[in-house]
Amino acid sequence: MAYGVFGLVGFLAQIIVVMETRLLPLFAWYRGRAATGFHGPVRSPHAMHNRSPQQVVFIGWLFGVPALALGFALGAVPLLATGAWALFAAVTISFLDNVLVVAHAWPNDDRRTTTRARTAIS
């Protein structure tokens, strides 16, 4: 059981989460640049994430995966539940951080109006 948890949750699920945190800022940057007509400033993909939630998510995964594996291996339901809740909290915080990153894909209306005005003048 522990091997399966480390393999499926510890490896495969973390690959999905890490790829998501790398691809979403890139998408938001491309979409934000396109929305400004490739003229306006858009925050760098590396600066879109808030690092504090990412640290909490890292600690949640660091604690949650071994607790989940030990809970399954030892049949300790409280340890299993603690690991599951830690992973749930980490994924929820990561989701909220990703929502804030994707919000960069749609710049505010002032930039769009300015871009339309520049396009009309050109």
Explain how this protein is built.
This protein is mainly α. The chain has one domain. Helices cover 80% and strands 0% of the residues. It is built from four helices and no strands. Helix 1 runs antiparallel to helix 2. The model has no long low-confidence stretch (mean pLDDT 81).
Question: What's the arrangement of secondary structure elements?
Answer:
Elements: H1 2-35, H2 51-74, H3 77-102, H4 109-121
Helix pairs in contact: 1-2, 1-3, 2-3
CA gyration radius, whole angstroms: 20 Å
What is the distance, rounded to the nearest whole angstrom, between the alpha carbons of the first and last residues?
64 Å
Secondary structure tally, helices: 4
Order of helices and strands: HHHH
Q: What structural class do helix, strand and pairing data support? A: mainly alpha
Whole-number total of structural domains:
1
Largest sheet: none
What share of residues are in beta strands? under 5%
Dominant shape: elongated
Mean pLDDT: 81
Percent range for helical residues?
Answer: over 70%
Uncertain stretches of 5 or more adjacent residues: none
Oligomer: single chain
DSSP strand count:
0
